[in-house]
Amino acid sequence: MKNQTFKITLMIISICAVVYHGFNLLSLWSDIPNEIAIHFSNNQSDNWGSKYLLIIMPIISILFWFLIQLVVRNPENLNYINLTEENKEIQYAKAKKVMLLIQYAGAITFIFVNEAFLRSAVGMDTTLPIIIAIVFLASCIIAPIYLLFWAAALKY
Known about the structure:
2 strands; DUF1648 domain-containing protein; DUF1648
């Protein structure tokens, strides 16, 4: 039941992020110039692309989500540290939870990076979407590291 609540919470956050970004993208589409900044160095744009690139990132987000979903379905196919018959169920459950976090947080990261590109294109402040993207990306990095150390410390 804990995993189900966790999954539903992540799903609600993801749906809210996608709906928010989709609404912004559609409502600001006419204000977006045909050529937008797609790469920055020292707060200066140094590479440009079509505004239609703003559609690609949400597609990548969805593809990423489906790819990780394939892994989440079968946590027993992952590699584990100190896996025994006694602890395999708890290890599978924790790995599934971490993979769910990576699945949803990774997808949300792509959405908010795209939101930052969108805001930059129309001259709005990009600080908040970048901070949100960094927080979700950090959770994708920290969670597996935590799981690795937790599994290494198992005694049985």
